[in-house]
Amino acid sequence: MSPAKRLVTWQLRARFAAGLSAMYAAEVPAYATLVEVSEQVNADHVARHPGAERYGSLRRVTAERHGAIRVGGPAELADVADLFAAFGMLPVGYYDLRSARSPIPVVATAFRPIDPDELARNPFRVFTSMLATRDPRYFRPGLRARVETFLGRRHLFDPALLARARIIAAEGACDAEEAEAFVAAAVAAFALSREPINKSWYDELSRVSAVAADIAGVGSTHINHLTPRVLDIDELYRRMTARGIAMIDAIQGPPRTDGPAVLLRQTSFRALAEPCLFRDRGGAVSSGTLTVRFGEVEARGVALTPRGRARYDAAMAAPDPAAVWGQYFPSTDEQMAAQGLAYYRGGAPSKPVVYEDFLPASAAGIFRSNLDSDARPADGSDDSGYDAQWLAGAIGRDIHDPYALYQEASG
Ligand code: OOG
Ligand code: NI
């Protein structure tokens, strides 16, 4: 008997990303348009700009997506970590969106491959936020206790799915004939639930934050956007606008410059309201709408060193970052490398190490741009104890330091 055919981690990850993409396209039509326009922009860009593929092959970039999910607490985040480990996606970086200019009551990490070969094969990543229930500026003790009780009763994932995921993660592979069902079950765990929503609970949480209601007002989690990558985001913006899809008015992140593209630029559009069911106090069910999902697109540039990042933060603090950009960044990769501002493979300016992570200010902006309005936190001090170490301890895993990974990739 020949041994069973096995699929390895990256093949499972590619199928997981493709499965989520198919599900999302079926549910959010504007996403399908975005993917189509992104593919055209990328093909045109590579045809016109020899060397554009140094930021990633057209094959990689065309398949590339990131998604975002939101969970209620550390136990749920630990389950997410177990599931994603089967796809070779590990927690990298810590993001505290409570300290953004327009604060959001979550802390977050990103699950992604960490090895350059794995990233080249399929870089699928998921920005994963956790509701900051320990922060008393958002959650009074009574409400916090009720939220945590609610979260303690729900199960985002079938225990059998998680058990399977742990085995696959340990083996680094899965029998091909079993893979389809495993990936389908993982994808289905992130579908938008059609279960009736408890209206008074949802409304109570909405008064704290629309994000609190989206996370803890319902019985499950869902992928709330899936983001294709483009090589020219300004061109994408023009073509989407020409097709009548209203994008938010700004591109988040660094301005367009003539010099090397750095970090991450992103823009988004609001999804249409989707039908849902609400249950009132008396048990009666009525139909309503929720606007919880949206579209986003991103362009990635070179990863900055801590020194480069400090310059980025300083440039972005100016009223008009584009106007002062040249005071902080040189105009060539050679100078970027020589000044130790960005990572290049083997130090060669023709081989940028692409930024694989997220930006807290942009992430908060992406959250914010898709909310009609949101409550401000109450005054008071934050004694929640949230930081990268706390999060790592709470989920029982290392949270990888992005700079260490870029350093390694550049060696
Ligand atoms: C996550 C927003 C952050 C990004 O690309 O910065 C994000 C969310 O809305 O849940 O996805
Ligand atoms: Ni995003």
Automatic annotation (TrEMBL):
Asked if the record carries the keyword Transport, the reply is no
Give the PANTHER family listed for this entry: 2-OXOADIPATE DIOXYGENASE_DECARBOXYLASE, PTHR39479
Q: What is its EC number?
A: 1.13.11.93
Q: Which organism is it from?
A: Mycobacterium heidelbergense
The UniProt GO MF terms for this protein read:
dioxygenase activity
- Which cofactors does the annotated protein need, by name? Fe(2+)
SMART domains according to UniProt: DUF1338 (SM01150)
Keywords in alphabetical order, please: Dioxygenase, Iron, Oxidoreductase
InterPro entries given in the database record: HGLS, YdcJ_bac-like
**Name the UniProt record assigns to this protein:** 2-oxoadipate dioxygenase/decarboxylase
The EC category is: oxidoreductase
The answer to keyword Iron applying to this record is yes
Q: Which family does it belong to?
A: Belongs to the 2-oxoadipate dioxygenase/decarboxylase family.
Q: What CDD domains does its record include? A: VOC_YdcJ_like
